[in-house]
Amino acid sequence: MDTAKNERSVIRNLILGFQHLLAMYSGDILVPLLIGGALHFSAAQMTYLVSMDIFMCGIATLLQLKRTPLTGIGLPVVLGCAVEYVAPLQSIGGHFGWGYMYGGIISAGIFIFLISGFFAKLRRFFPPVVTGSLITLIGFTLIPVAFQNLGGGDATAKSFGSPVNLILGFTTALVIIVINIWGRGFFKQISVLVGILVGTLLAIALGKVGFASVSAAHWIQLPRPFYFGVPRFEWSSIATMILAAITCMIESTGVYFALADITHRDLSDNDLARGYRSEGLAAILGGIFNTFPYSTFSQNVGIVQLSGIKKLRPVYYSAFLLIFLGLIPKFGAIATLIPSSVLGGAMLIMFGMVGAQGVKMLMKVDLNNKNMLIIAVSVGLGLGVTTQPALFQFLPAEVQTILSNGMVVGSFIAVILNLLLNNTSLKNKVEEEA
Fold first, then answer.
1. CA 361 to CA 413: how far, in whole Å?
2. Which of 12, 20, 82, 29 is nearest to 300 (CA)?
3. Which of 1, 70, 244, 261 is the most buried (most CB within 10 A)?
4. Which stretches of 96-155 are DSSP H helices?
């Protein structure tokens, strides 16, 4: 009897882990496709890059899940390469070469690891009004990404927004909503997975899925250190990657607090430091194995919220699945069959849930005029620079990287306004000097 129960538990956790994997898979493979394409990687090089990126996502997730004296925040979080790194890596790889790109990644990882203890002590600058605003921004600034995928992925393509893409995307979203309204138990917990599967099956029936990528993929691909060459180091490349790393650390802080709020857990400075160190170590390994730096994936916050499953075991299964798929590219290629529009429909719900989680946190804040101003200005500026990044097109590229990121702008503004409006000691000092 106990054996049958344990088998059901394993299958249940495996399915929940697979749901986490699918939720982040598109973002996972998007980064290597964008960077490999921009740097003109060959088919063989691209195969390695995608496979090893998937493999390293699993390793990075395990580093974050398992608590040790130095690493592991122990929250149900999946790690992958953040889109914030795409532009800096493309620029470094294009101007200096692949070696400098990986040198910058390793340097950024070392920086994150060393600064983690200090950065964790800055938590007093992230009260609920700041973290709530940041989490709201994380969700809502990703909505355009969801809509781009829903339309087909490439906004410049003639087929973007075609009736078929819209049908696939909104059908996926509708299935997820319907299951959450009328579903029960485990079926409700895997609503995102069911929605993605229904959307993909519909796409196959409509002839919108090709299987060529599966046929072309290899059966096995083992990780090799310095596959594309040894890392090289140059100050501007290192500085650019460190700026991008700080951006991702701020975003990760918001994700940590969002998950802590969902799982009803209080985070200490030591917890945050271990979380940052895990990301730093993952970035160092990414540079050694010629992949990418890794940080927490915010879309999986929506999965935790929707499924109601707050335990680590399903995420462990997801991490091992990622490692398995990374070693066997032919199996990993199967997941690439999911159309962008189907993923976009699921992202629409998940990113919206992340934003709603931020709103929920803000409901616990005393909404006086000061806090309302912090929320209004930080969220407004964050959404504004996200929708109009060309506003800063005449500024240096390094400055554009920072100012065009809505989450960075919004979080910095929220922190500064909170210091000015809610920090009594600071206000008294300013008044005395005046």
1. 18
2. 20
3. 244
4. 98-120, 128-141, 143-150
Both tokens assigned to 421: 């409006």
Half-sphere exposure of 253 (CA within 13 A, CB side): 32
**In 3D, which of 335, 337, 347, 342 has the Cα closest to residue 166?**
342
- Smallest CA-to-CA distance from 55 within 336, 295, 290, 325 is with 325
Please tell me the distance from the alpha carbon of residue 4 to that of residue 1, in angstroms, as a whole number.
5
- Judge residue 134's burial from the number of C-beta atoms within 10 Å of its C-beta, 0-12 exposed, 13-18 middle, 19 or more buried: buried
- Can you tell me which residue has the tokens 């209080």? 266
- For residue 156, CA distances in Å to 152, 340, 377, 388 come to 10, 14, 32, 17
Element (H, E) at 295: strand 295-296
Q: What is the pTM of this model?
A: 0.67
Percent helix, strand, coil in the chain, to 5, is 75, 0, 25
Identify the DSSP state of 296: E
- State the DSSP string of 42-97: -HHHHHHHHHHHHHHHHHHHHHHHS--SSS---SS--EE--GGGHHHHHHHHHHT-
Q: How far apart are CA 307 and CA 263, in angstroms?
A: 12
Mean pLDDT, consecutive 10-residue stretches, the chain (434 aa), reads 60 73 64 68 72 87 87 83 70 77 90 91 80 80 80 79 88 89 73 82 83 68 78 80 78 80 82 91 90 77 67 81 81 68 82 80 86 91 83 75 72 86 59 48
